[in-house]
Amino acid sequence: MKIAAMRVHSVAIADPPLRSSYGLHAPYALRTIVEIESQDGITGISETYGGETPARALEALRPQVIGADPYRLTGFLSSMVEGEKAGANRSQTFLVPGENPLDATTRTYAAVEVACLDLIGKSVGQPVCDLIGGRVRDEVPFSAYPFYKHAGGGGEGGDRREDEYGEVMTPTALVREVKQMVGKYGFGSIKLKGGVLDPDREIRTVKLLYQELGPEVPLRIDPNCAWTVETSVKVGKALAQELSGGGYLEDPTAGLENMAEVRQRLVAEGIMTPLATNVAVTSFADIPRAIELDAVQVILCDHHYWGGMRQVQHLAKLCKVFGIGLSMHSNSHLGVSLMGMAHVAAATPHLTYACDTHYPWQSEKDEVVAGGRVAIVNGCVRIADKPGLGVELDHDQVARGRERYEKCPYRKRDDEAEMRKHVDPNWRRILPRW
Amino acid sequence: MKIAAMRVHSVAIADPPLRSSYGLHAPYALRTIVEIESQDGITGISETYGGETPARALEALRPQVIGADPYRLTGFLSSMVEGEKAGANRSQTFLVPGENPLDATTRTYAAVEVACLDLIGKSVGQPVCDLIGGRVRDEVPFSAYPFYKHAGGGGEGGDRREDEYGEVMTPTALVREVKQMVGKYGFGSIKLKGGVLDPDREIRTVKLLYQELGPEVPLRIDPNCAWTVETSVKVGKALAQELSGGGYLEDPTAGLENMAEVRQRLVAEGIMTPLATNVAVTSFADIPRAIELDAVQVILCDHHYWGGMRQVQHLAKLCKVFGIGLSMHSNSHLGVSLMGMAHVAAATPHLTYACDTHYPWQSEKDEVVAGGRVAIVNGCVRIADKPGLGVELDHDQVARGRERYEKCPYRKRDDEAEMRKHVDPNWRRILPRW
Question: What percent of chain B has pLDDT over 70?
Fold first, then answer.
């Protein structure tokens, strides 16, 4: 089997005005859809970060992809995921995921790997999870991912999407948002995007969630490094009970050393809330130091930037060996990414937390998967007995996504610029803010 | 695709009177050949440790294997390779490989995994290495594995095999053996099984090899824990130059603490010879402590007891992340194991040393692979463009191996008993001996 064609589609998808410590989501999120087609007309697909840089990186790989055997291409390109060196400052603290130049090659590799696996799966009639070791679960649990947000749906003009949740800038509104989301998708755990309101109000939000949902629903909060060590310890103490039942405190503060200090001080108080990260540890090269410092107790994997599904499986085993928990990171994404996340999670024994997903924030109208959006039922994505990722592209929908991309004035994510445009002309990201 | 049949063949293969710190190889080594056959008559094969215990463990798994989908069976059984716990004393110091009860389940799993991968490969026309991530090399380098030995070939009576190398119980005889082996197979590196003669004579052997083969041939010595810390340091110092050019000192002494002390004392003298192990670290559970102590700088993987090919790939990535070298362990084996070793090595980017193999010690007459022995040319096994492991069984040869097994008086490896029978009625394994 040889690869005869590769198509790289840059698309824009409506994204609601979600807030985080990075700033504000723009009306459109950018994604890249990759198709690789074999000589006999079978097509494998994948989805990755959007904008010019990822698309260019994929195009640059075209000479190696065309003519390659999809079974062998991942081995041939393996130096792209084997080259990481432990570096002084690898952290992506100030960069949104997908914009860290240090993981550019692992991101590109991942998009190719997943498309190859989908192609192989479709050619032999096997689900991707069963190609990479075999599923350990048929249903992959995802977590609700509530955000503080401004009023308004995603998109602009004629592409304006419905605003299901309205403005959510208070603890009570957030609880309402969560209940609505849980009612719709059945999520069994909650990950709150924090770092937006004053820490005391975010503490109140979590306490209110705990009160309303009960202790059996795991709660996490992720302020994306918005806090000092002092504030992180204060929040950790204030939420000791609320985050203890299978929850975690994610990236309260920036840097492995600071995370380690937060951990030490919480443990000294008898508070064992695990610290999670997708910022302090974004690569295998970060792990030895993180372990040495006991800076993180949960790592958020993400096949999109960790170098694909097999690298996530390696990461999971490493975490298992060192007693580190494994969760999964997410960015605004469509159904192709969701199925990629579900398949790798299905084939990863040591996945100790429900995965994150932004999927509820996207709209049916932007979905590129044929037949419409992937169902999340009881908080889970079910791995169907379908070949590959289990989804095909709706090419009309891809074309619409491309049109939106062409009309879009930006070519990379910039949540800070969006804040200045819509909220505060002088806004900039300050870390730590509190 | 469903598995319709599983056949477990216990075979005995002639083995020459090789010496190690464990004692003396018996006239026959025991191996198990596994066949799993799909409903449509495609057969996947694997080879593992022999004797009653491994065969019984495989038979016990029969209810889960029959009727299973080979793509899913490995996921379904994954708890067999995910259950390791860090334990107080996991070392297999006093056990020959394959007899450690702590890795019984990972050994059984590996035999099933490899047979599934061979079956899948044969059903889709793809080599195993390209199913598990894709080859990073077409030729897998192996090391010569010279032993001190008594005169005589393997086998007994009518099954007595030719003795190619004669008695090898002196440094000069060992050099002759190596030259003969290198002449026949083209090996580019040498791993000497030590722990047999007085350490001074083993030092002399290595120095003589270095002198005769030149500094460009990497040399290793493995006394299987026969030495004290003092002796290990003494040998490390005496062979500082000889083991420095891509070689290593393997398991000079027993236990992670002792290995760490040897390392510290050698480094303090400016001697950076890496310490390798397949005894102090035999499982993922051993790794955190080994890293903490800097006790080993090279781990010998072996898909037969580390839980299969994908676990070896996880191990390799872990070693890469922590700056640990990766080599490959071997036991007396036939061509099915050799191809398993070659395929996993081909698909493992971070393999930093040529692999061990006992294969030159086995005889064409005992080979179960159709068409005869797998070729080792220029010290390498070439991954052919053949499906699965690239080999099929010669069922007449398997039947002969079963006959030999039936005639064999022993059902497990016992090198100590063999020493008492043939060399010294009072012999027992003493660690450390020197």
Answer: 97
Q: Model's pTM, two decimal places?
A: 0.98
Contacts of residue A199, defined as CB under 8 A and 6 or more positions apart, other chains included, come to A223, A227, A231, A234, A235, A434
Q: Which of A102, A425, A11 is nearest to A286 (CA)?
A: A102
ipTM of this predicted complex? 0.97
Q: Which of B73, B74, B82 is facing A320, going by the closest CB pair?
A: B82
Give DSSP secondary structure letters for A299-314.
EEE-HHHHTSHHHHHH
Q: Over the range B326-349, which residues count as b (16 or more CB within 10 Å of their CB) and which as e?
A: bbbbbbbbbbbbbbbbbbbbbbbb
The residues of A annotated as belonging to the active site are 193, 329
**Ramachandran angles phi, psi of A134, nearest 5°:** 100, 140
pLDDT tens per residue, range B19-49: 999 999 999 999 999 999 999 999 999 999 9
Task: For residue B87, count other CB atoms closer than 10 A to its CB.
Answer: 11
Residue B157, sorted as left (phi over 0), alpha (psi -120 to 50) or beta, turns out to be left
Nearest CA in chain B to A291: B288
Residue with tokens 């070519």: A411
Cβ distance of A313 and B311 shorter than 8 Å: no
Other beta carbons within 10 Å of A337: 27
B302 closest CA partner among B98, B94, B52 = B98
Q: What is the pLDDT of residues A317-335, one digit of tens each?
A: 999 999 999 999 999 999 9
Enumerate the residues of chain A whose CB falls inside 8 A of the CB of residue B314: 313-314, 317-318
Helix (H, G, I), strand (E, B) or coil at A339: helix
Nearest CA-CA partner of A366 in A10, A13, A27, A4: A13
Q: What is the Cα–Cα distance from A231 to A378, expressed in whole angstroms?
A: 35
Residue A87 has pLDDT above 80, yes or no: no
Beta-carbon count within 10 A of B88 CB: 5
Please answer whether residues B197 and B432 qualify as being in contact, where contact means their C-beta atoms are separated by less than 8 angstroms: no
d(CA B44, CA A216) in angstroms, rounded, equals: 46
A74 vs B contacts (CB less than 8 Å): 133-134
* A123-170 pLDDT per residue, tens: 999 999 999 999 999 999 999 999 999 999 999 999 999 999 999 999
Other C-beta atoms closer than 10 Å to the C-beta of B69 total 17
Q: How many CB atoms are closer than 10 A to CB A242?
A: 21
Residue A88 has a pLDDT of 45
Instruction: State how far residue A272 is from chain B, nearest Cα, in angstroms.
Output: 21
Residue B101 has a pLDDT of: 82
Two tokens, residue A230? 């002092």
- Closest chain B residue to A320 measured between Cα atoms? B82
Nearest to B318 among A130, A131, A321 (CB): A321
Provide, as residue numbers in chain B, all residues whose Cβ is less than 8 Å from the Cβ of A285: 321
**Could you give phi then psi for residue B426, rounded to 5 degrees?**
-105, 5
Q: How far apart are CA A89 and CA A93, in angstroms?
A: 10
Across the interface, whether the CB atoms of B321 and A134 are under 8 A apart is answered no
Burial-class residue A214 by CB neighbours within 10 Å (0-12, 13-18, 19+): exposed
Chain segment B347-397, per-residue pLDDT in tens = 999 999 999 999 999 999 999 999 999 999 999 999 999 999 999 999 999
